[in-house]
């Protein structure tokens, strides 16, 4: 199996189980309807773990463009591999979300809430403020990539590493996931959002494209700054990639400020 197909397959598994737990909680007349946030966080943590178990020995199981970029910054993979990784991760996110749609096929019609249906596929902020939403995704994804990199420094018994990574996803979810639903992964949000847009989902609304930049650009910026922090404090490295990471974070937050003042930010709430 090639590393690229491995990333595709691992992300399918991630999106199937992660999106599946959201469907089980959000959609009416399911066994899990109305369950609380901890169920979703546990589901996503285990989704990442089992995606990693499936393909970790083949591709490293990034399953996340932000992670691939961070690992390229650290030298774990070559930059030439990054575009292929990202494309396959995005395709995996789309296919995994399609499988969730098929799994819960009768329940879309039974659920009137269009937002609940979209929530199976993609994230949305609890309080809409683009600057704050970008900040949340940056911090959450920085915690993810920094955690993945320092976990990799430790000698861990064979087979335990994916469970530890899943625990990292779980703790990010229960601790930092409240403001935006913690995308922390462009493939986990954009891929399924595309699936939501193209699938004939009964009674669906729009795919909230005005927000879609946040769970894409925010995690990329956060992943880069997490890698920068790791390289600075654990390896004593500060170079051009470090400067670029800081610039990307600043630009991302400035975009958030501008979006709050633009037409798409008319319903954004103040943080003051």
Plain-language structure description:
Helices cover 68% and strands 0% of the residues. The chain has 11 helices and no strands. The protein is mainly α. The protein has a single domain (3-265), classed as Glycerol uptake facilitator protein, CATH 1.20.1080. Helix 3 (65-74) runs parallel beside helix 10, helix 4 (82-103) crosses helix 9 (186-198) and helix 7 (130-151) runs antiparallel to helix 11. The chain has helices at 3-26, 37-59, 65-74, 82-103, 107-110, 114-121, 130-151, 161-176, 186-198, 214-235, 240-261.
Provide the number of structural domains.
1
Task: Find the count of extended strands (DSSP E, 2+ residues).
Answer: 0
CA radius of gyration: 18 Å
Give the low-confidence spans.
none
* Number of helices in the DSSP assignment: 11
CATH class: Mainly Alpha
> CATH superfamily, please?
Glycerol uptake facilitator protein
- CATH topology: the name is Glycerol uptake facilitator protein
Distance between the termini: 52 Å
What is the CATH architecture annotation?
A: Up-down Bundle
Estimate the strand proportion: under 5%
Order of helices and strands: HHHHHHHHHHH
Largest sheet: none
How much helical structure, as a percent, in the residues? Answer: 55-70%
The mean pLDDT is: 95
